[in-house]
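ok so i was messing around last nite and threw this chain in just to see what happens. nothing serious, just curious
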Amino acid sequence: SEYRQIEESGGVAVERCENVLGQRIGRLDEKDLLMVYVVRCIELFCELALGRNQTSLGIILKNKRFSLDYSQILLVIFSKMVPISVRACYVKLMRRLYVDRDPQTAKPEVLFTRAWKRVLTSDSGMQSKS
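result:
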C-alpha cells in the first residue's frame, strides 16, 4: 500500500499514513480523506467501547456492516499491507471489544476459607465420643 511507504518528516522516517493523519483535512485528496475517515471511525469505536459500555459493545459487535468480528480484526492486525498506525488502532479496538471486557454477569465464588470455629466444635464432638 502507498501508505506504508517511508517518508522523512522533520528528520524522522515515518510511514506516509502518519503524515496524512497529521495533516489538515483541507489539504488532503479524496483517497487520503477516506483513509483518515476509516481510522477516525475505528478510534470512535474504541472510545465508545471504553469502560465496558454494554450498549455500545452490543451495537458494535452485532452490526455485521462494521466488519468488526474477532477474525476480521485479526486479519487487519496481521496484514503487512496495512500501515502500522492503522494496525495499532485495530489492536486497541481488539483490546476494548474482546480482551478488556467483563461478562457483566455474577459468577458464584468458591470460598476457600474455613470457618475454624465450626471445625473445632465438630472436632471436639468427635473426641468426646471416642
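not much to say yet. The two ends are 84 Å apart (CA to CA).
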